[in-house]
## 1
Amino acid sequence: MIELLVVAAILLAVGIGIKLNFKIYHLKPFIILLLLFALTGIPDVVITSHYAYLQPEKEGNPLAAYFLSFEYGIAIAAFLWAFGWILLSEAFIRIKLYPLAYFTLFALFSGHLLGTLTWADNIQTEDIRFLSWIIALGYTVLFWAGLQLWKKAKK
């Protein structure tokens, strides 16, 4: 069930940012971009975990392959990846470099979309139901959080 663990790691990364009162969670355009990041990032990491966990030779990204090579490494990587990019975007917002924050989050959305598509030929029909439940769980929690943040957001 490493797939559930990677989703929990992403939720933890988001939750820490919310708890630390990051500005990124108070501005509507960034909430939308964060949700797009999640929209493609969650399937990418869930599918990668499902098919390449402890089999790093199946992953093209050398850094991801390293984390896939040891137990629970991909969960650590998912947390660091999500929190690191959110933190970088937050830094851009705090120093008023909004275009860089927009670009960062949109690039992550695009990159994860391509990353997910690279697995298309490998997804087995019998795995789709399981993978769909895990992805739907992550989406449900993150989109609920997004709606709550949206209601409280300034602009």
## 2
Amino acid sequence: MKLARFRNWLLAASMAVGLLAVPHLHAATAAEALKEDAVCTRCHDYTEAKPVLSIYQTRHGVKADARTPTCQSCHGASEKHMKGDPNQSGRAATDVQFGHGGAYPPSDAAEQTGTCLNCHKSGARAHWAGSEHAGRDVVCADCHKVHVRNDPVLSKQTQTEVCFACHKEQRAQIHRNSTHPIAAGQIACSDCHNPHGSTADHLLVKRSVNETCYSCHAEKRGPFLWEHGPVTDDCSNCHTPHGSVNPTLLKQRTPWLCQDCHSGDHANQVNSGGNLPGGNVTTVNGNAPLASAAPRAQLNARNCMNCHVLIHGSNHVGGSKYLR
């Protein structure tokens, strides 16, 4: 008896807060939605060149959920498309036409995205207005395939190919010697970037480059007793995120990378790898011909990190030079 009363109370409470709907209301909603869709699906059936009916295998086709849209929810009432337009030869387009390459020209970008944002306007999509993609008139249907069971952009294994349709430079970079496991499908573009908009540069998911990198590379976060300035400033000072011909995604090979900042030397002559006009190089004693500049013993094997291994920061009391 007590269990039955509790079950009835839980049902009433769930209905009151909208967590659960009465079963017959779900059935009525589903029947009405399918009846409304039937106006479209009697023509747009499995014979279509592009998948249409497979939308019922997606979240947009779950008719037991009252929030699920119908065909008209997205494409508009489209009276002229269904009943014909005496002022136009052939069948008119729907009120809202998505994507590109269809039988009809696409609707305005603002109208397309506005239709989607009627429902999808919170969370990660809150910054769409004014974002880089919105400014270039990219629309939702350029990346998303709503009618297919598995939207490629929502899977790590296939998402990158969607992004690389436009970002071709990054496609080439991920196939270099050193790269994040993007091609392997272990991480996707959306792990670092929010394509719907961001308050950070480069559509990053976090507030800065470093915060985004620290999501995975927490051991580099610190704080350290001795902090390396370029590291705390921006990881991309030394690393390129999509791929590099140098180890560990470095923008240049050491020692040249280090010498971009460190023009001083270990009490030896040459303190820069950059050639100056006339074949000279910079030394602690001024400019000198390259031929007379003695090699640096400290750069044996041409790698600063042979000694300065704690390059991201050190907690050792004597670690101001990031040595072993």
## 3
Amino acid sequence: MAELNAPEYSGTWVRPDPRLPSIPLWGHAEGIQFGLHPIPGPRGLLRVFAPYLGPSHRDKLLNFVAIEPIATGSVERGFSELEHSTLDDAQGKRFWSADSLEDVAPRASDHPARGVVSELHGIEQLSVFVLSESFDNGARVAVEVSFRADRPHELSLAASRLPGSAELDYCILTATMGNYPRLRTVQLASEIVTPQSLWPGFDGDHFTEHAVFGVDRLARNSAGEITVTATPDESDPESARYDPAVVEHWKYAGRRASQTWTAANPDSTLELLLNARAKYWASTAPIPGGASFENFELRERFREGRELRLTIEPLD
């Protein structure tokens, strides 16, 4: 990435440099941020950064978010990370950015939109659209990613169906890398669930089946919004002892943090889905302490522009 112009930090926000090509990164200058390929990592995923968790997190991502639409009448997901591109036949759907949905033509991801700074109810906001090429199931979607100046640890994601798309039953936005911070406790309305309580003794090198929890089992905040929080169970994850087979990028560094999905105005179809791994992705290297949650998502019947919020808060 040495040939790409570095992001521009100005006041509240970080945004791509207008001199192209540039690194596609947006968000709070000192808070939560997201980026796209060619920032390192698999294609077809949003990269989520939390530099406020310490110097080791300045350039190290904390999680990915995948886009997984389900066409009407089907039960099969589209997989933004795993499907091959019809534009260049590489693995991972190609994502690019735009300041509006008036122009959805593909562009190079290293020619990013700047994002739009606006004001709503007296609060400054930054927003940008992430567009995807068509999925194998015919879905064509965009996700608007937004930040509020008064919420430095929160981003919002809102999916839209683009012209020519298949009809959608769902457009799932899933946080996919819980194994890195080793998220092992999830707070429900009246109980805490863990991988051990859901899949006792699991030690395979594959994903568990999803555990599914309906809206009535999920916690609500004082505004009546659904909130689901996942946290690590280790007091000092930096001190973990790793098997020699564990590659360096899986080794956690920095302050611990909780990760929370929030959904306002949930309907009766909303569900929490969790799965877990006991071995790191694409390996047989064991996760210190055993299985941890990997995919962490809210699933609800598709609603155009429906907003979900992801918050990452330090615990120390």
